[in-house]
Structure formats: structure tokens, C-alpha cells
Amino acid sequence: DHAVAARVAMSESKKAPKFLKAGKVVLLLQGRMAGKKAVIVKTFDDGTPDRGYGYCLVAGIQKYPLKITKSMPEKKQLKRSKVKPFIKVVNYSHLMPTRYALEVELKSIVTTDLVSGSSANPTARQNARKEVKKLFEDKYQSSLKTGKNKWFFQKLRF
């Protein structure tokens, strides 16, 4: 009994460092969005009364931009660089963290009350998704020029 209690106390004092932070790029492993990339907006390590497990709020890409070349007309390039985003609450066990981070200010747009339960307002959620779409598309355009965050906007082949 004492050995078990000591081990539990020791494991609590030596907690693993938090690497699932806002801005971290993760891969979703389960559900409809399995294999899609997302960015953590907010984390809930200890869960909440209605969700008793660690989870986080993510914004990700449901449909990735298509390949574009220099020879394509401007209009076609714009059409092919569209992004379809999603906003979702995901259990930690359904995420795979990556080494990448994405500096996008999503905290003000994507909030917990958008996705929590029956009180979620569909129009507010749609508006948030539109804002996220705008941010992701701007980020994608800048990634074409600079080459930064290029990996986030490419479809995962698996």
C-alpha cells in the first residue's frame, strides 16, 4: 500500500511537460476528419464536468487546396487555392501531435461556446468557420510566397 501511494505521489509531482499547446499542429486519428490536419485553439487538460477527459478545441482543414502552377491563369489559381475548414472538439487520445506549429490568431474567433452541446448557435458557428477560412487562405497565400507552413496545407497521403 505504501509503495503504491508513494509511486502515485511521485508520478503526480513529476508530471509530463505540456506539449499540446495552442498553435500546435495535430493530426486527427478518429472520426470523419481522420487523417486531417488541425491547429489547437484551446486545451482542457483536466476535462470539464460534462467531459471528464482531456480534450481540446481544434480548427482544421477538411478540404485542402489543389496544386497550382505558374502557367495557370490567375482566376484558376485563386479557385484552386480554396480551403474548407472545420471546427471541432477532440479527445486527446484521438490526436497525434506533430513538431509543427502555426501562428494563427484563432482564439478570438473560435470559442468553446460555438461547439458545446445543444446551446451551439449554428449561424455563429458558420460565421466562425468563414473567419477561419479567411485566415487559413491568407496563411496559404503567404506560404506560397515564403515557403513557411507549406506542409500544413498539403493533403496527407496515407
Summarize the structure.
With 158 residues, the protein is α+β, with helices and mostly antiparallel strands. The protein contains four helices and five strands. The N and C termini lie far apart (47 Å).
Topology summary:
Layout: H1 2-13, E1 24-28, E2 37-44, E3 55-63, H2 74-80, E4 84-91, E5 95-101, H3 112-115, H4 122-146
Antiparallel strand pairs: 1-2, 1-5, 2-3, 3-4
Question: SSE order in H/E notation?
Answer: HEEEHEEHH
Sheet with most strands: 5 strands, antiparallel
Oligomer: single chain
- The percent of residues in helical segments reads 25-40%
The secondary-structure class comes to: alpha+beta
Mean pLDDT: 84
- How far from one another are the termini? 47 Å
What's the shape?
globular
Helical run tally? 4
The overall strand count is 5
Strand proportion = 15-25%
> Nearest-angstrom radius of gyration?
19 Å
Uncertain runs with pLDDT below 50, 5 residues or more? 4-13
Query: What strand order characterises the main sheet?
Result: 4-3-2-1-5
